[in-house]
Amino acid sequence: MSTTVSVAPRGAQGGAVTARILPPGRGKIASNLVSDSSRDLRIDLDADGRESVVPP
Prior knowledge:
By secondary structure, the protein is mostly beta strands.
């Protein structure tokens, strides 16, 4: 997750980055949301570290 959190905000022009550890029992373990003036991007991580980009 630390790599995803550090890479996700690259290129952002201001805005906010929110990283969350999700509750046990869900299919994903973490979620990162990057919001700036040009986009909203959510990246979810599963227990194996695989990333999936969730469209806005």
